[in-house]
């Protein structure tokens, strides 16, 4: 994982921000993100349908669906396209609840900006916001979305948490 | 998807961890799992139920017997909890975009030559 190139900035309990610098022109970065999502989205882990997910699709227009397609042909919605500004900006609604079920009334938002840094590099800024819509499960969900990839630190935190929980349960 | 908190709760118990570790090696019948443990068969059943709810084991009926095996979804949820959703997703995107860019660059170099 190339975690050192993804940085978080500032703390907002209702939003998660990530920035990644990509060695690709703005048009390619946009295209891969919006039209080839199924080739890179970790579908084995991040999907909600019962079937094995084989593709993730964003319909290229405002109001379009954002959904996964299973190997049995079934589809499961994730959200909607709220803003579609080719090569520069994309806003999606993320309507997956804390129990990983689709709920069109959830309406958390993901904004993705593609900022050209010369001809061959793009800074991709992602913000997942309106996490307050998760209500009392906001902090739990924010942790899932925001966590940095520092395994050592995380495993230490996990060990501590597991021990505390074990103590409580015992 | 499975809730990581539930996985942590389930594995926070020593007996359940032992059951899970046994199942990690091979699928087992409920009765065989109780053997060699200082807990009753019905306690093992209850632990298995907690592990099932957490997405750590799945069960299949074979006649009157129930065969348990590891369900990878719970483990995946734990990994997701540890890794961070957007970290992992954006890392995967970066790799794909850079592959596409170098493929496009190679194609244009071929066209120019």
Explain what you see:
- Chain A has a single domain, classed as Alpha-D-Glucose-1,6-Bisphosphate, Chain A, domain 4 (2-Layer Sandwich).
- Chain A is 25% helix and 32% strand.
- Chain A contains four helices and eight strands.
- The mean pLDDT of chain B is 86.
- Chain B is α+β, with helices and mostly antiparallel strands and 113 residues long.
- Chain B is elongated, with a radius of gyration of 22 Å.
- In chain B, α1 packs antiparallel against α4 and α2 packs across α4.
- A three-stranded antiparallel sheet of chain B has the order 1-3-2.
- Chain B folds into two domains: 72 residues, Winged helix-like DNA-binding domain superfamily/Winged helix DNA-binding domain (Arc Repressor Mutant, subunit A), CATH 1.10.10; 29 residues.
- Classes of the chains: A alpha+beta (170), B alpha+beta (113).
- At the A-B interface, β2, α1, β8, α3 and α4 of A face α1, α5 and α6 of B.
- Strand pairing plus helix content of chain A: what structural class? alpha+beta
As an assembly, this protein is heterodimer
In the CATH hierarchy, the architecture of the largest domain in chain B is Orthogonal Bundle
CATH superfamily of the largest domain in chain B: Winged helix-like DNA-binding domain superfamily/Winged helix DNA-binding domain
Work out the radius of gyration of chain B.
22 Å
The name of the CATH topology of chain A is Alpha-D-Glucose-1,6-Bisphosphate, Chain A, domain 4
Order of helical and strand elements of chain A: EEHHEEEEEEHH
Pattern of helices and strands of chain B: HHEHHEEHH
Helix content of chain B: 55-70%
Interface with most residues:
A-B, 54 and 35 residues
Tally the helices of chain A. Answer: 4
| CATH class (first level) name of chain A | Alpha Beta
Number of strands of chain A: 8
User: What characterizes the major β-sheet of chain A?
Assistant: 8 strands, antiparallel
CATH fold node name of the largest domain in chain B: Arc Repressor Mutant, subunit A
| Major sheet description of chain B | 3 strands, antiparallel
């Amino acid at each position: 994982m190339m975690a050192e190139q993804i940085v978080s900035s500032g703390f907002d309990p209702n939003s998660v921000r990530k920035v990644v610098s990509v060695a690709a022109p703005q048009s390619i970065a946009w295209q891969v993100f919006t039209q080839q999502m199924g080739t890179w989205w970790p579908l084995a882990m991040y999907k909600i349908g019962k079937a094995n997910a084989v593709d993730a699709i964003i319909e290229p227009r405002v109001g379009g669906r954002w959904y996964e397609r299973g190997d049995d042909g079934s589809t499961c919605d994730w959200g909607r396209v709220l803003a579609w500004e080719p090569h520069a900006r994309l806003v999606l609604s993320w309507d997956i609840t804390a129990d990983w079920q689709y709920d069109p009334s959830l309406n958390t938002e993901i904004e993705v900006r593609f900022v050209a840094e010369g001809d061959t590099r793009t800074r991709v800024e992602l913000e997942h916001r309106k996490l307050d819509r998760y209500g009392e499960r906001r902090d739990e969900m924010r942790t899932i979305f925001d966590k940095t990839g520092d395994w050592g630190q995380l495993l230490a935190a996990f060990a501590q948490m597991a021990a505390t929980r074990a103590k409580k349960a015992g | 998807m499975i809730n990581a908190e539930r996985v942590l709760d389930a594995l926070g118990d020593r007996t359940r961890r032992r059951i899970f570790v046994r199942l990690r090696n091979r699928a087992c019948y409920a009765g065989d799992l109780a053997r060699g443990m200082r807990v009753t068969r019905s306690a093992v059943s209850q632990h298995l139920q907690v592990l099932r709810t957490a997405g750590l084991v799945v069960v299949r009926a074979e006649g009157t017997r129930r065969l348990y095996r590891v369900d990878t979804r719970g483990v995946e949820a734990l990994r997701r909890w540890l890794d961070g959703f957007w970290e992992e997703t954006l890392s995967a995107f970066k790799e794909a975009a850079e592959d596409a860019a170098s493929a496009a660059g190679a194609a244009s170099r071929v066209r120019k030559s």
